[in-house]
Amino acid sequence: MLSTKGNEESIRLGVILIGRKRPGFDQEWNRVMTASCLGLLEQIGYTVVRSEAPVVDEQTTAAALDKIQEARCEALLMLQPSMAHGQLALTVAQRWSDPVILWATPERPGDGKVSSCSLVGQHLWASSLRQAGRPFEFVYGDPADAAVREDLKQAVTLARAANRLRHSRVGLVGTHAPGFIDLAAEPFLLRRALGVQLYPFSLPQFIERVREMPDDAVRKDIQKVQDLQLPMRDVVVEDLAMNSRCYLAMRELMEEEKLDALAVQCWPELPNMLGQWPYLAVSRLSTEGRAVAIEGDVDGALTGLISLLLGAGAGFLTDWLEHDQNTIFFWHPGMAPMDMCDGPGREGAPTLAAHFNIVKPLVVDGKIRTQEPVTVLRLWRCDNRYHMTAMEGRTIEPRRKLSGNTALVEIAEGDVPERFNRLLHAGMPHHVTVSFGKHREALRRLAGSLGLQWWD
């Protein structure tokens, strides 16, 4: 299972400095820029793996890449402070399939001559990589510039996200919910398009795992839930045991099988066979930073994983319930991350309750916090390829109350009915994910790196 921590200290970054066999340009300025760039990487806190000397030909480039791959680096940064051999771009393209980060540094100011041609060199590399069908991220500027620092961090985050997604494993317990055929998973398309491996699991065997969780572990977990001091409505303390069993079973399955995301067929089987909905368990797991989806929505689970990889949390997987020209009202029956809901003591704070429809425990009612910037995103398959969309907005006070989890989002650019119509014709499923923060541009760039069809 991949760690989705966003802190830079957890990122293993491969760095290759491209040198020159023949003297040329201002090599003193090259050394200044190299030292400054490496210094910034150290300040940010990346775990840097690099060759001791600059690469200058096929052999030294291959050796540097071998070292970086042996260290299991999650992103690759190419530094070219002086224009160097463009042919090496194809060497890298042959041996590194994930996005490459190209960092071009500025010319020495005010000396009356060209000092480095760094931007020209990286432009050459970018063009070659694109024509070779290899994705890349591009950063340009002085490492002393705060804006460049942020550009670099985002480029590394995106390259790492693409790398991790291509090596991820998603589990599916059972299948999609009855009739929800738009959520059906296709394992070979997942593998071809995203590199993701799908691991199917038997629903009856999962139910047996839930029932056989050790009583001692269940008692300890019940105490953890009680320590949260969540209000209860139409449920009692005795209802906690089965949801603790569901929580422990899902967590154990993800750890045992090294799953990065999990989708569970939750209805109608689980409330009928276990006597409960597993939504408190799902809410707890997503609050802890695990991508878990209900109703067998595999691509929804991967959407949550992408949100996590960009540092936005697992997000709230939800139905698009209704809309007008400028707003969308989102609702789902009580399984959003608790840290996305109103805080304790407020009317919309997380409350343990019974499901509104099949009236059984245990859901987490709660309103998503208002006046928060959000991104509405979705990954899905259609026409034998993968697609992605994202739009930004902010949460505002809902106009009416519903049980479950709700969020009224005012979309930044409006025109919601037209957007909805375009997405319907693109085959987007009825679930989307709402995550805190503004991530549309990062998602658009990630979609480009992964070769996905992007929809505005």
Task: Describe the model.
The protein is α/β, with parallel strands linked by helices and 456 residues long. The chain folds into 2 domains: 8-166, Rossmann fold; 169-455, L-fucose Isomerase, Chain A, domain 2, CATH 3.40.275.10. Helix content is 37%, strand content 23%. It contains 14 helices and 19 strands. The strands form 3 sheets. The chain has a 6-stranded antiparallel beta barrel with strand order 11-12-17-16-15-18, surrounded by 4 helices. Strands 2-1-3-4-5 form a 5-stranded parallel sheet, with helices on both faces. The longest helix is centred in the middle third of the chain and has 21 residues, at 146-166. It is elongated and about 80 Å long. The model has no long low-confidence stretch (mean pLDDT 95).
Number of helices: 14
Looking at this structure, what is the CATH superfamily of the largest domain?
L-fucose Isomerase, Chain A, domain 2
User: Which bin fits the share of residues in helices?
Assistant: 25-40%
Strand order of the largest sheet: 11-12-17-16-15-18
- Tell me the β content: 15-25%
* General form: elongated
Provide the CATH architecture of the largest domain: 3-Layer(aba) Sandwich
- Name the CATH class of the largest domain: Alpha Beta
The biggest beta sheet is recorded as: 6 strands, antiparallel, barrel
Task: Compute the number of structural domains.
Answer: 2
Structural class, please?
alpha/beta
Provide the CATH topology of the largest domain.
L-fucose Isomerase, Chain A, domain 2
Low-confidence blocks of residues: none
Q: Give me the count of strands.
A: 19
Oligomer: single chain
Mean pLDDT: 95
Rounded to an integer, what's the Rg over CA atoms? Answer: 24 Å
- Distance between termini? 32 Å
